[in-house]
Amino acid sequence: MYRIAVLAVLLAGCTPTPPAPDKPVAAPVIQAENPEWAKIAEEAMKGRPVEEQQRMLEAERHYQLGLAWFNKGDFDKAKVEAQLAVQTWTEHIPARRLLDDVNEIIVGGPTRLRGIGDQELQVARVSVDQARLEIENHLLRGKRFLDAQLYPSALREFESAEFKIRNLPYDVKSMNDLLPGLKELKARAKSSLKD
């Protein structure tokens, strides 16, 4: 009798529950520290299926937990959370970076800590890249003005490009190589202006 009672209890606990009727999945609730971040999060979620939005939020939750463990110095737990974030949403770039940082610390590889001059070097690179883009834009606009026979505007663009090339914080060969062609374009704009 005891065996039958135990068997009945076990079978009662193991019976499958009837499937729940299909309910629409509720959209995830976005919690942000201020309205501006809430708006940014809502914009990022637009046009995505609800399941995908939930995965993204779950990945963000794991990332935040991993970051908290990383900041506390518990790198093993940080690695687990970062891995869960990447597995949940493979496009979560900050979680990938955190996982790289944790792996470097655990393995004992380079920590990618910045040196004393690294910040200044990064600022110089960005300023040179920005100047290069501005110079290329001046040249492009100058050529367009020259083709449209707007010679004063073309001359102004070419002079701006030359000024920026000569005043770069560092000597950049690719920009200095533009100077001979730029002088020809300036001369062409000046001669057309006189006519």
Strand content: under 5%
Mean pLDDT: 78
- Integer-rounded radius of gyration: 31 Å
The low-confidence parts are: 5-19
Quaternary structure: single chain
Shape category: elongated
Number of folding domains?
2
Structural class: mainly alpha
Cα distance spanning the termini: 117 Å
Residue share in helices? over 70%
Please summarize the sheet with the most strands. Answer: none
Give the H and E element order: HHHHHHHHH
DSSP summary: helix tally = 9
How many beta-strand runs? 0
Looking at this protein, list some descriptive labels.
single chain, 195 residues, mainly alpha, Serine Threonine Protein Phosphatase 5, Tetratricopeptide repeat, 2 domains, 9 helices, 73% helix, elongated
Verbal overview:
The chain is mainly alpha-helical and 195 residues long. It has 2 domains: 46-107, Serine Threonine Protein Phosphatase 5, Tetratricopeptide repeat; 118-194. 73% of the residues lie in helices and 0% in strands. The chain has 9 helices and no strands. It has helices at residues 2-14, 35-45, 50-72, 75-88, 93-107, 118-147, 151-166, 173-176, 179-194. The termini are far apart.
Secondary structure layout plus pairing:
Layout: H1 2-14, H2 35-45, H3 50-72, H4 75-88, H5 93-107, H6 118-147, H7 151-166, H8 173-176, H9 179-194
Concise synopsis of the structure shown:
By secondary structure, the chain is an all-alpha fold.
